[in-house]
Amino acid sequence: MILQTLLMAPSYVFGNNAAVAFHPGVLIPLRALLAALLFLMLLKLRNQLHLPPKSLWKPLLRLTLLGITLNQTFFLTGLRYTSPAHSAIIYSLTPLTVLALAAWWFKTETLSWNKTLWIIIAIIGTILVLLSKASKTALNPILGNILTFIGLIFWSFFMSYARILSQKIDPIYMTAVMVCLGALFFLPIGLFFLPQVQWDNLGADAWFGLGYLVVVNGTLAYLLLNYALSKLHASQVALYINTQPVLATLISIVFGKTSLTLSFVIGAFLVLLAVWKVNR
């Protein structure tokens, strides 16, 4: 999870470059298709190039819908309009949303008054972050933040379900099947929007961002995450993910996409403090 965090943090910045340059209807299918090709080669090398058992199709389709189709659609579209730092802070709420789902949806955990208080503090911190003017390049921060938050909800459901399935099936095989199923879903969308791409206007930053989203964000990060979910609880995995906003914000500042404002710093501090306290 430490390696996964170090690889994922820069994806907010590099992914933002690709999300702005490519139309979402092209970027999302192209990323899914290229990642699927890498996973197919990996399955071939591992002699796992076969269909999953019938009993696993339903949970695999559900995970694909949550973690690939819906999450990536809202995440990458939101990243197109908001800043990398804002996107990372929103996704740092993953441990709290996983906890809330465990208490209110899955009924596997109860919320104490202490935990509820820190969840409220995290919400206040998130509002401060979203209201800050820290972004230098965001096209439409309000729209981007709303889309990103919707993606977070789907991601939290994915984390909860993936924990269960990753203990029944090889995590690498599970990830590969999910990515390939997601690519099949996005293929018609990509073919529809592909003729609208002005390839000559795409710079090196856009292509590097796409490559990072495919190889690191769409392949290595998913492999590491699903492997970790087979060994750790979802809330433990989510705690590691919560360190990504700090790194992502620092990288965003270095690349000139974010400036630190007082409301952003206070809000980010409250979010990270709340998540740390709840997980303790």
Question: What does the model show?
Answer:
Helix 2 packs across helix 5 (84-91) and helix 3 packs across helix 4. The protein has one domain (2-279). The protein is globular, with a radius of gyration of 18 Å. The mean pLDDT is 84. Helices cover 78% and strands 0% of the residues. It has 280 residues and is mainly alpha-helical.
Key attributes of the depicted protein:
280 residues, mainly alpha
Helix-residue proportion? over 70%
What general outline do the C-alpha atoms trace?
globular
Rg for CA atoms? 18 Å
In terms of quaternary structure, the protein is single chain
- Secondary-structure element order, as H and E? HHHHHHHHHHHHH
Q: Kindly estimate the percentage of residues that lie in beta strands according to DSSP.
A: under 5%
Rounded average pLDDT: 84
| Structural category | mainly alpha
State the low-pLDDT regions, or none.
none
Number of beta strands: 0
Query: What does the largest sheet look like?
Result: none
Tell me the span between the first and last alpha carbons.
18 Å
Estimate nothing, just give the exact number of structural domains.
Answer: 1
Put simply, the count of helices is 13
